[in-house]
Amino acid sequence: MRADRLLSLLMILQIHGRMTARELAQRLEVSERTVYRDIEALSSSGIPVYAERGPGGGCILPEGYRINLTGLTEDELRTLFITPLADLGMEKARDAALLKLLAALPTTQRQSVEYTRQRMYFDPVGWFYSTEASPFMPLLREAVWGNRRVILRYRKRNTDLVDRLVEPLGLVCKAGIWYLVALSNGNNRVYRISRVRNVALTDEHFQRPHDFDLEHYWKAWCVEFQARLHPYEVCLRIAPQFVPILPYVMGESIYQVLEEAEPPDCEGWLTIKLRFESLEVACGFVLGFVYNANAGTTVPPDFETVVEVLEPQELREAIIQIADRLYTFYRKRE
User: Fold this and answer.
1) For 127-146, what is each residue's pLDDT tens digit?
2) Where does the HTH deoR-type domain start and stop, copy by copy (predicted)?
Protein backbone atom coordinates (compact mmCIF):
# COMPACT_ATOMS: atom_id res chain seq x y z
CA MET A 1 0.00 0.00 0.00
CA ARG A 2 1.21 3.52 -0.78
CA ALA A 3 0.53 4.79 2.76
CA ASP A 4 2.84 2.15 4.21
CA ARG A 5 5.52 3.00 1.65
CA LEU A 6 5.32 6.73 2.45
CA LEU A 7 5.69 6.00 6.16
CA SER A 8 8.65 3.69 5.48
CA LEU A 9 10.29 6.39 3.34
CA LEU A 10 9.93 8.91 6.15
CA MET A 11 11.28 6.51 8.76
CA ILE A 12 14.33 5.75 6.61
CA LEU A 13 15.04 9.46 6.10
CA GLN A 14 14.51 10.15 9.78
CA ILE A 15 17.29 7.66 10.55
CA HIS A 16 19.72 8.67 7.77
CA GLY A 17 18.79 12.31 7.12
CA ARG A 18 19.86 12.22 3.47
CA MET A 19 19.76 9.40 0.91
CA THR A 20 19.87 9.28 -2.86
CA ALA A 21 16.76 8.39 -4.82
CA ARG A 22 18.51 5.24 -6.06
CA GLU A 23 19.22 4.08 -2.48
CA LEU A 24 15.63 4.72 -1.45
CA ALA A 25 14.31 2.95 -4.53
CA GLN A 26 16.37 -0.13 -3.67
CA ARG A 27 15.21 -0.13 -0.04
CA LEU A 28 11.55 0.34 -0.96
CA GLU A 29 11.70 -1.89 -4.08
CA VAL A 30 10.24 0.76 -6.38
CA SER A 31 11.55 2.93 -9.23
CA GLU A 32 13.42 6.22 -8.72
CA ARG A 33 10.54 8.01 -10.45
CA THR A 34 8.17 6.60 -7.81
CA VAL A 35 10.47 7.87 -5.06
CA TYR A 36 10.38 11.40 -6.48
CA ARG A 37 6.59 11.25 -6.76
CA ASP A 38 6.37 10.15 -3.12
CA ILE A 39 8.68 12.97 -2.02
CA GLU A 40 6.47 15.47 -3.86
CA ALA A 41 3.33 14.01 -2.26
CA LEU A 42 4.82 14.23 1.24
CA SER A 43 6.02 17.76 0.67
CA SER A 44 2.56 18.81 -0.58
CA SER A 45 1.03 17.43 2.65
CA GLY A 46 3.19 19.74 4.78
CA ILE A 47 6.10 17.42 5.66
CA PRO A 48 9.46 19.25 5.21
CA VAL A 49 11.01 16.68 2.91
CA TYR A 50 12.58 17.69 -0.39
CA ALA A 51 14.89 16.47 -3.15
CA GLU A 52 18.10 18.07 -4.41
CA ARG A 53 19.35 17.00 -7.81
CA GLY A 54 22.93 16.87 -9.01
CA PRO A 55 26.21 15.80 -7.35
CA GLY A 56 25.90 15.78 -3.57
CA GLY A 57 22.12 15.94 -3.77
CA GLY A 58 19.53 13.48 -2.64
CA CYS A 59 16.29 13.22 -0.72
CA ILE A 60 16.46 15.13 2.55
CA LEU A 61 14.48 15.31 5.78
CA PRO A 62 15.70 18.15 8.05
CA GLU A 63 17.40 17.11 11.28
CA GLY A 64 15.10 17.26 14.28
CA TYR A 65 11.90 16.35 12.44
CA ARG A 66 10.14 13.40 14.05
CA ILE A 67 7.34 11.21 12.76
CA ASN A 68 4.28 10.53 14.88
CA LEU A 69 4.39 6.87 15.95
CA THR A 70 0.62 6.56 15.57
CA GLY A 71 1.43 5.51 12.02
CA LEU A 72 2.38 2.04 13.27
CA THR A 73 0.19 -0.79 12.05
CA GLU A 74 -1.53 -3.13 14.50
CA ASP A 75 0.76 -6.03 13.57
CA GLU A 76 3.84 -3.87 14.22
CA LEU A 77 2.47 -2.80 17.59
CA ARG A 78 1.76 -6.38 18.61
CA THR A 79 5.33 -7.46 17.92
CA LEU A 80 6.63 -4.62 20.11
CA PHE A 81 4.53 -5.72 23.07
CA ILE A 82 5.46 -9.41 23.01
CA THR A 83 9.26 -9.00 22.70
CA PRO A 84 11.01 -10.26 25.88
CA LEU A 85 13.91 -8.16 27.20
CA ALA A 86 13.86 -9.13 30.88
CA ASP A 87 16.96 -11.35 30.61
CA LEU A 88 19.01 -8.36 29.47
CA GLY A 89 17.96 -6.33 32.50
CA MET A 90 16.06 -3.97 30.20
CA GLU A 91 12.49 -4.65 31.28
CA LYS A 92 12.15 -1.29 33.10
CA ALA A 93 13.38 0.64 30.07
CA ARG A 94 11.12 -1.43 27.83
CA ASP A 95 8.09 -0.85 30.04
CA ALA A 96 8.77 2.89 30.17
CA ALA A 97 9.14 3.09 26.39
CA LEU A 98 5.98 1.06 25.81
CA LEU A 99 4.07 3.27 28.26
CA LYS A 100 5.10 6.36 26.29
CA LEU A 101 4.15 4.63 23.06
CA LEU A 102 0.76 3.64 24.45
CA ALA A 103 0.12 7.21 25.54
CA ALA A 104 0.76 8.42 21.98
CA LEU A 105 -1.59 5.90 20.40
CA PRO A 106 -5.23 6.45 19.51
CA THR A 107 -7.77 4.71 21.76
CA THR A 108 -8.57 2.05 19.17
CA GLN A 109 -4.93 1.00 18.88
CA ARG A 110 -4.44 0.95 22.67
CA GLN A 111 -7.37 -1.44 22.87
CA SER A 112 -5.83 -3.58 20.14
CA VAL A 113 -2.56 -3.84 22.10
CA GLU A 114 -4.34 -4.95 25.28
CA TYR A 115 -6.40 -7.40 23.24
CA THR A 116 -3.16 -8.96 21.94
CA ARG A 117 -1.49 -9.11 25.37
CA GLN A 118 -4.45 -11.04 26.78
CA ARG A 119 -4.35 -13.58 23.94
CA MET A 120 -0.65 -14.14 23.17
CA TYR A 121 2.22 -15.02 25.50
CA PHE A 122 5.76 -15.84 24.47
CA ASP A 123 7.49 -18.51 26.61
CA PRO A 124 10.96 -19.25 25.15
CA VAL A 125 11.91 -21.96 27.66
CA GLY A 126 11.56 -25.58 26.54
CA TRP A 127 9.73 -28.24 28.52
CA PHE A 128 11.54 -29.63 31.57
CA TYR A 129 14.14 -26.87 31.38
CA SER A 130 14.50 -24.05 33.89
CA THR A 131 15.37 -20.52 32.84
CA GLU A 132 19.04 -19.61 32.57
CA ALA A 133 18.91 -16.08 33.92
CA SER A 134 22.40 -14.75 34.67
CA PRO A 135 23.26 -11.91 37.05
CA PHE A 136 25.98 -10.88 34.59
CA MET A 137 23.68 -10.05 31.66
CA PRO A 138 23.51 -6.28 32.38
CA LEU A 139 27.32 -6.08 32.54
CA LEU A 140 27.70 -8.03 29.31
CA ARG A 141 25.09 -5.87 27.62
CA GLU A 142 27.01 -2.76 28.71
CA ALA A 143 30.24 -4.23 27.33
CA VAL A 144 28.60 -5.08 24.00
CA TRP A 145 27.03 -1.65 23.71
CA GLY A 146 30.23 0.19 24.61
CA ASN A 147 32.83 -2.00 22.85
CA ARG A 148 34.63 -2.64 26.14
CA ARG A 149 36.84 -5.61 26.94
CA VAL A 150 35.81 -7.89 29.80
CA ILE A 151 37.48 -10.64 31.79
CA LEU A 152 35.29 -13.75 31.88
CA ARG A 153 35.60 -16.52 34.41
CA TYR A 154 34.12 -19.41 32.47
CA ARG A 155 33.33 -23.03 33.30
CA LYS A 156 34.25 -25.30 30.40
CA ARG A 157 32.36 -28.48 29.57
CA ASN A 158 34.91 -30.52 31.50
CA THR A 159 34.13 -28.32 34.58
CA ASP A 160 37.53 -26.55 34.47
CA LEU A 161 37.42 -22.83 35.32
CA VAL A 162 39.36 -20.51 33.03
CA ASP A 163 39.80 -16.73 32.79
CA ARG A 164 39.53 -15.13 29.37
CA LEU A 165 40.06 -11.54 28.23
CA VAL A 166 37.47 -11.12 25.47
CA GLU A 167 36.02 -8.43 23.21
CA PRO A 168 32.20 -8.84 23.25
CA LEU A 169 30.61 -8.54 19.81
CA GLY A 170 27.01 -9.55 20.48
CA LEU A 171 24.44 -11.44 22.55
CA VAL A 172 22.25 -14.16 21.06
CA CYS A 173 19.21 -15.87 22.57
CA LYS A 174 18.50 -19.30 21.09
CA ALA A 175 15.54 -21.31 22.45
CA GLY A 176 15.68 -19.43 25.75
CA ILE A 177 19.45 -19.90 26.18
CA TRP A 178 21.74 -16.87 25.97
CA TYR A 179 25.16 -16.89 24.32
CA LEU A 180 27.95 -14.33 24.08
CA VAL A 181 29.82 -13.98 20.78
CA ALA A 182 33.24 -12.47 21.43
CA LEU A 183 36.77 -12.13 20.11
CA SER A 184 39.40 -14.01 22.10
CA ASN A 185 43.05 -13.93 21.00
CA GLY A 186 41.95 -12.73 17.58
CA ASN A 187 39.40 -15.51 17.01
CA ASN A 188 35.60 -15.48 17.27
CA ARG A 189 34.31 -17.59 20.14
CA VAL A 190 30.85 -18.47 21.51
CA TYR A 191 30.28 -18.67 25.28
CA ARG A 192 27.16 -20.04 26.94
CA ILE A 193 26.29 -17.38 29.50
CA SER A 194 24.93 -19.83 32.08
CA ARG A 195 28.53 -21.10 32.41
CA VAL A 196 29.93 -17.64 33.14
CA ARG A 197 30.97 -17.47 36.79
CA ASN A 198 32.19 -13.88 36.90
CA VAL A 199 32.49 -10.80 34.68
CA ALA A 200 34.97 -7.97 35.22
CA LEU A 201 34.31 -4.94 33.03
CA THR A 202 37.58 -3.22 32.06
CA ASP A 203 38.18 0.38 30.97
CA GLU A 204 39.78 -0.82 27.75
CA HIS A 205 37.87 -0.22 24.53
CA PHE A 206 38.33 -2.17 21.32
CA GLN A 207 37.69 -1.53 17.64
CA ARG A 208 34.78 -3.65 16.45
CA PRO A 209 35.56 -5.43 13.14
CA HIS A 210 33.82 -3.40 10.45
CA ASP A 211 32.92 -6.51 8.43
CA PHE A 212 31.44 -8.51 11.33
CA ASP A 213 27.73 -9.32 11.00
CA LEU A 214 26.25 -10.98 14.10
CA GLU A 215 23.33 -12.74 12.39
CA HIS A 216 25.45 -14.07 9.54
CA TYR A 217 28.15 -15.34 11.93
CA TRP A 218 25.63 -17.01 14.25
CA LYS A 219 23.87 -18.90 11.47
CA ALA A 220 27.17 -20.18 10.07
CA TRP A 221 28.41 -21.14 13.55
CA CYS A 222 25.20 -23.09 14.29
CA VAL A 223 25.62 -25.19 11.15
CA GLU A 224 29.25 -25.95 12.03
CA PHE A 225 28.42 -26.64 15.68
CA GLN A 226 25.67 -29.14 14.89
CA ALA A 227 27.89 -31.01 12.46
CA ARG A 228 30.68 -31.11 15.05
CA LEU A 229 28.37 -32.10 17.90
CA HIS A 230 26.87 -35.15 16.15
CA PRO A 231 29.59 -36.62 13.90
CA TYR A 232 28.66 -40.28 14.51
CA GLU A 233 26.18 -41.49 11.87
CA VAL A 234 24.13 -44.64 12.49
CA CYS A 235 21.89 -46.59 10.11
CA LEU A 236 18.93 -48.25 11.87
CA ARG A 237 16.15 -50.56 10.76
CA ILE A 238 12.87 -49.89 12.59
CA ALA A 239 9.97 -52.35 13.00
CA PRO A 240 6.66 -51.17 11.45
CA GLN A 241 4.70 -51.33 14.73
CA PHE A 242 7.12 -48.92 16.37
CA VAL A 243 7.31 -46.25 13.63
CA PRO A 244 4.16 -44.40 14.85
CA ILE A 245 5.65 -44.25 18.37
CA LEU A 246 8.95 -42.68 17.22
CA PRO A 247 7.83 -39.03 17.69
CA TYR A 248 6.94 -39.74 21.33
CA VAL A 249 10.41 -41.18 21.97
CA MET A 250 12.55 -38.87 19.81
CA GLY A 251 10.55 -35.67 19.49
CA GLU A 252 9.13 -33.73 16.57
CA SER A 253 12.44 -33.61 14.69
CA ILE A 254 12.04 -37.29 13.71
CA TYR A 255 9.31 -36.35 11.20
CA GLN A 256 11.90 -34.87 8.82
CA VAL A 257 14.01 -38.04 9.12
CA LEU A 258 10.97 -40.19 8.30
CA GLU A 259 10.12 -38.05 5.28
CA GLU A 260 13.66 -38.45 3.90
CA ALA A 261 13.74 -42.24 4.47
CA GLU A 262 13.42 -44.80 1.68
CA PRO A 263 10.12 -46.77 1.41
CA PRO A 264 9.75 -49.72 3.85
CA ASP A 265 11.25 -53.08 2.84
CA CYS A 266 9.24 -56.24 2.05
CA GLU A 267 8.75 -56.91 5.80
CA GLY A 268 7.53 -53.38 6.44
CA TRP A 269 10.68 -52.30 8.31
CA LEU A 270 11.90 -48.74 7.76
CA THR A 271 15.57 -47.78 7.37
CA ILE A 272 16.60 -44.41 8.82
CA LYS A 273 19.86 -42.58 9.51
CA LEU A 274 20.54 -40.72 12.76
CA ARG A 275 23.54 -38.81 14.07
CA PHE A 276 24.96 -39.00 17.59
CA GLU A 277 27.79 -37.44 19.54
CA SER A 278 29.71 -40.71 19.93
CA LEU A 279 29.59 -44.51 19.83
CA GLU A 280 28.71 -44.59 23.55
CA VAL A 281 25.77 -42.20 23.14
CA ALA A 282 24.47 -44.18 20.14
CA CYS A 283 24.75 -47.44 22.05
CA GLY A 284 22.80 -46.05 25.01
CA PHE A 285 20.13 -44.73 22.66
CA VAL A 286 19.60 -48.09 20.93
CA LEU A 287 19.34 -49.98 24.24
CA GLY A 288 16.92 -47.39 25.62
CA PHE A 289 15.01 -47.54 22.36
CA VAL A 290 14.41 -51.27 22.83
CA TYR A 291 13.36 -50.75 26.45
CA ASN A 292 10.83 -48.02 25.56
CA ALA A 293 9.33 -50.22 22.86
CA ASN A 294 8.77 -53.05 25.33
CA ALA A 295 7.64 -51.07 28.35
CA GLY A 296 4.73 -52.93 29.93
CA THR A 297 5.48 -56.30 28.29
CA THR A 298 6.51 -59.45 30.08
CA VAL A 299 9.43 -61.80 29.43
CA PRO A 300 9.97 -63.57 26.09
CA PRO A 301 8.23 -64.49 23.85
CA ASP A 302 6.37 -61.18 24.39
CA PHE A 303 9.65 -59.22 24.17
CA GLU A 304 10.19 -57.66 20.76
CA THR A 305 13.32 -56.31 19.12
CA VAL A 306 12.01 -53.29 17.28
CA VAL A 307 15.33 -51.85 16.09
CA GLU A 308 18.29 -53.35 14.28
CA VAL A 309 21.64 -51.63 13.84
CA LEU A 310 22.77 -51.96 10.23
CA GLU A 311 25.81 -49.66 10.39
CA PRO A 312 28.42 -49.12 11.69
CA GLN A 313 29.65 -52.61 12.51
CA GLU A 314 31.36 -51.47 15.72
CA LEU A 315 27.98 -50.40 17.11
CA ARG A 316 26.45 -53.81 16.32
CA GLU A 317 29.35 -55.48 18.13
CA ALA A 318 29.03 -53.13 21.11
CA ILE A 319 25.32 -54.01 21.47
CA ILE A 320 26.15 -57.74 21.34
CA GLN A 321 28.88 -57.38 23.96
CA ILE A 322 26.65 -55.44 26.36
CA ALA A 323 23.80 -57.92 25.93
CA ASP A 324 26.16 -60.87 26.57
CA ARG A 325 27.64 -59.25 29.67
CA LEU A 326 24.21 -58.46 31.12
CA TYR A 327 22.99 -61.99 30.45
CA THR A 328 26.08 -63.57 32.02
CA PHE A 329 26.00 -61.24 35.03
CA TYR A 330 22.40 -61.94 35.97
CA ARG A 331 22.54 -65.66 35.16
CA LYS A 332 25.34 -66.08 37.70
CA ARG A 333 23.17 -64.56 40.41
CA GLU A 334 20.15 -66.81 39.96
Assistant:
1) 656 655 678 888 998 999 89
2) 2-60
